[in-house]
Amino acid sequence: MVSSPDIAQRIVEAILAQRLAPGARLGEQELSMLFDCSRTVVREALVRLSTRGIVTVSSRRGWYVVQPSHDEAREAFEARRVLETGLIRRTPPLDKAALRRLRLHLRQEQAALAGDDVGQRSYLLGDFHVCLAECLGNQLLADTLRDFTARTTLIAMLYQSTHDAVQSCQDHVAIVQALEQGDTAEAERLMEAHIGQVQAALRLGAPQDPLADLREALAPVREASRTATRGKSRPVPGNPIPPADPIPTNPSNDTYLGALL
Known about the structure:
CATH architecture of the largest domain: Up-down Bundle
Largest sheet: 2 strands, antiparallel
Order of helices and strands: HHHEEHHHHHHHHHH
Radius of gyration: 28 Å
Mean pLDDT: 85
Helix content: 55-70%
CATH class of the largest domain: Mainly Alpha
Distance between the termini: 53 Å
CATH superfamily of the largest domain: GntR ligand-binding domain-like
Number of strands: 2
């Protein structure tokens, strides 16, 4: 019988493999049929993922994979930078078993890059960071890092990252080599540069103003009229044009829309 942690893990793995996109709907009924379990078990898994920031729920529309905003993207990468560099800085040299596991992971990455399974490639590149945290001996941070890595994978999908997968693998190789040589300072520097490069490859652009069109349409008419009358020719001598009656103003109305919008 499948459990709610099993379902949650499968969803996170699908995100890491870029098989679930930001905003994808996760229907309780469909998931219960897929995993052959009750909707209660599915709901428990989705609630678990909601508390971890992976999915969100709407009272009328159901469950969806999150779509991180610009600010959330920045915060996710900053959290990863603090976690991963701090973990490397505070960890003693890796033992032989940990180094063997990391080398195996790197070989799997390189094999995936040579193949055509984009999902496997994406999963392994993201899972390297989780594997490294586990090899460094901190399972709690490894679990936390898995969630942050899933979120940054969604961010890369949402904002069309241009980062090169081959470059990511090369960065991973350099980090492991530094750790193998006992140079934790260099490994920390390489990790910070690696995360920074991935973040810099995002096409975030400037955040759009969702009220821009409405703000322009509902600008005070008095301001629009004043702008429209600027630059008009003066009255011709001998044919004076009587001045227009001043438009009454109400100080309380002048800033009504401007203050709100």
